[in-house]
């Protein structure tokens, strides 16, 4: 069972992800990306997909032409877990 982040862990970890906003309703974190064009956006999504597979942790995301929006939450935990923080950090490293 994957544990949700405790309030203390959230206070410690979320400030290290300043580009990500907390979605209180979903108990997840979101970030919006804009690229030069669709091809760049899709290339980014391909790289994220490979990270997700490697982590066995998958984003909820949408793409509109050159824009990608990602929500990270842990279904098995019913909210934000360390897996979301780790994947967000790995995604940030792609930018
Ligand atoms: N991705 N976001 C997210 N949340 C999960 O709980 C999750 C996942 N990817 C794979 C996964 N769980 C598997 O571990 C379980 O479906 C078995």
UniProtKB/TrEMBL annotation:
An example molecular function term from Gene Ontology annotations: 4-alpha-hydroxytetrahydrobiopterin dehydratase activity
> Which EC class heads this enzyme's classification?
lyase
Catalyzed reactions:
(4aS,6R)-4a-hydroxy-L-erythro-5,6,7,8-tetrahydrobiopterin = (6R)-L-erythro-6,7-dihydrobiopterin + H2O
Q: What InterPro entries is this protein classified in?
A: PCD_sf, Pterin_deHydtase
BP terms from Gene Ontology: tetrahydrobiopterin biosynthetic process
Q: What is its EC number?
A: 4.2.1.96
Which keywords does this Swiss-Prot/TrEMBL entry list? Lyase
Q: Keyword Nucleus, does the record have it?
A: no
Output the Pfam families linked to this UniProt entry: Pterin_4a (PF01329)
**Its family?**
Belongs to the pterin-4-alpha-carbinolamine dehydratase family.
Q: Which PANTHER family match?
A: PTERIN-4-ALPHA-CARBINOLAMINE DEHYDRATASE
Mind telling me what this protein is named? Putative pterin-4-alpha-carbinolamine dehydratase
Q: Which organism is it from?
A: Sphingomonas chungangi
């Amino acid at each position: 069972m994957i544990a949700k982040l405790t309030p203390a862990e959230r206070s410690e970890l979320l400030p290290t992800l300043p580009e990500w906003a907390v979605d209180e309703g979903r108990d997840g974190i979101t970030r919006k990306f804009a690229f030069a064009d669709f091809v760049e956006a899709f290339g980014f999504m391909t790289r994220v997909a490979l990270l997700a597979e490697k982590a066995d942790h998958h984003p909820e995301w949408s793409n509109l032409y050159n824009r990608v929006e990602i929500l990270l939450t842990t279904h098995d935990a019913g909210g934000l877990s360390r897996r979301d923080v780790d994947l967000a950090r790995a995604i940030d490293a792609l930018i």
